[in-house]
Amino acid sequence: MTVEKVERIRRLLTEALAPLELDVIDEGHKHAGHSGEGKGHFFARIVSPAFAGKNPIERHRMVYAALGDMMPDGIHALAIEAKAPGE
After folding, report:
1. What's the CA angle centered on 32, arms 31 and 34, to 5 degrees?
2. Model's pTM, two decimal places?
3. I need a labelling partner for 70 at 20 to 30 A (CA). Which of 2, 61, 63, 87 fits?
4. InterPro entries given for it (predicted)?
């Protein structure tokens, strides 16, 4: 199930943000015993021209918008590193 979530996250972010670099990592193993265990803990590192001129909050909102219904239903926690090219 987690591999499918990682692939879906990758696909949605690629479609919405056309990243030059994209890493999506399942970090569920770091949250054993946590209240959200099994609901999906991920890290995403994204470098996209879409982030140019945007502040960190705007960038995170863009990522959340790209993921749509995955945020409340398939992802419990998402750590984001969002950069524009050259940063």
Report:
1. 65
2. 0.86
3. 87
4. BolA (IPR002634), BolA-like_sf (IPR036065)
